[in-house]
Amino acid sequence: MSITGGCHCGTLRFIAASDPVECGYCHCLICQRTTGAAVLIFNTFKTSDFRYEKGVPTVYPSSHHGTRELCDRCGTQIAYRPKENTEFIDVNSGAHDDPEQLSPQYHIWFENRLPWLNIDDNLPRYPREKPELV
Asked: Are strands 40-46 and 50-54 parallel, antiparallel or unpaired?
């Protein structure tokens, strides 16, 4: 499977040339603040299988854990790259051309979930960090 996507204005385009390793909801405060959304859905790919086909993202050091990649024209956040475990990249599902292709498998940073947000599923909920990659 190949996953394609890009930013809202079309300045950035990407391709992930393999199936994701995993997919999840992130309720952390950093994702909430950097996206302006109550929760972020992401897909983790091997870094070696991900590339930008068009444009060069702006890199924002969002925490001591890693950086965010975004379009400096429209502001769309595309990805998160951890400073450790650089073998993987998290790509925001909302930036995919067909986000319905991939479904989340779990929730992380559930302790930071906004109390009025209720996602009715039976997925595992982790209070903080995500589990080891499967």
From this structure: unpaired
